Amino acid sequence: MKKTSKLVHEKQTSRFSWGWAALCLLLLCAACQTFGNQGEALVRQTLQPPAASVTPFSPPLSFSNSNTKTPTLPPAAAPSSPTPFKSPTPQPQVCTGDLADCPQLIYFREMLENPDYHTLLALHPPPELADLHYELADRKADLEEIDQQIASARSSGNAQAALGFVQARSMAESAYYAVRERALDAWEAFLSPYNITLPRTFKELHPLTGIAFTNPREGWIVGRKGIILYYDGGSWQRSSSPTQTDLAGLALDSGGQGWAWGVFGDQGASILLRLQGKHWQEVENPASLPVIRSISILSPSLAWMLASDVNGMEAEILHYNGRVWFQEKKLTFKDAISIHMRSLQAGWVDGYAHNQVLLSINGIWQTHTLISAQDCSINQVQLLAADAGWAAGKNGCIFKFDGNHWAIEKTPVMNDMRQLWMINAKDGWAMGQNGSILHYDGRAWVETDSPATETIEVLAGYRAGLGLAMTTSGRILRYDGAKWALEDFPVQLGFSSSPVFLEDGEIWAITPLHGIAHFANGGWEVAYQWPEELP
Q: I need a surface site. Which of 284, 406, 440, 524 has the fewest CB within 10 A?
């Protein structure tokens, strides 16, 4: 994690600028104190804390470590001395206990449970706390590196070398927890004007991570610490869980059967649960690669699993025939994240393998390379059939697949296209950077008016007259069959995973702050709040 990427360098530069800005503001505050209450109020308004933004498809669980280092056996080095804690500048009160008005709590949770650079860059820590949180990420990286070196020594049979790291690990662990305590102190001071008491441990909190329904009257939700909720058509109730491992997602079939998966351990090993009837039980992970990324189900006897290595360089696809899982394909494909099966004849894997896409056509998995004159790194793929597919990527690129070849389509924008929703072969949508919305009418892609100016990161729909999209800050757009418009959504930061559309027009979504949101009869309501009202 100590590798300095361009993105981290830009963030550090941003933090340096924030430091000068904070210093200037403090000087201004001191000067304004001589001018009475009016000047003081102006400075407090200037010091309004920035709201943390949440990347919608960066789920709470981190399954890969892009900064994994090749294990070596250097002499143990003492960790750097911690930076003395300074109480952050008091902030004006902007909320009084309502979680919807305090998005910083999301960052607080992620900072504690996943303090890595990816999380930090995605969630934009307040400038008063940024350096402390980067230090926490550094200390965690030190600890993980030593653990990797110990594991490498043990696997090579060098037990004596592994013992040589005991003192270094003890020092690194002490340094990590010392910084963590200072981070807790800093956050409590930062949020003290908000009248919110933050716990020192999150063992009793259960953020939700995955939702699926078998029919409008039966659904399931999974989350951290092994939480499982069941919907019986009237209310959500806590269900018995065979694990306390963090669960990341689930997939169900129309017959009421399904699978849930999660991750545990430093090496990203996955747990697999099987739903039969109303009971979940743990079963053996059938994949040869450790991390289960996604499962797609067509029927009780037709399911596919996507697994990968910890670093996201290899992908493995398994097929379930109703009795056993068996491997269909294992290949090099970067950062595979989800598998989608439209039918036995058409399926695909979403990932970030630059200009490559991974398709299943008539039961055969193949990697396709998409050729273009400009950089068209692919963000999303969607197939309607074995001979009808599309892919969207950077610089306004959209490709069309005819069953044999991919051809680039003409588009009126150069913005990155992040999301696709193809309703049928003559009707579809592509969305992305700066709120860009393109509509496909069967002949051409046409830019349409957008109510958003931020990048659109989530797009999902059920039929021609019902679709949802979400921007990076959590603003919701809904499609009513005629146009896209901003939606009156009850939770400030939107939903934290793709919403579920039901046959009767209802929509269910899990949210970062309030738990479960429900759309019915033309409006939204919060079904349960997190964490106070979680069953």
A: 284
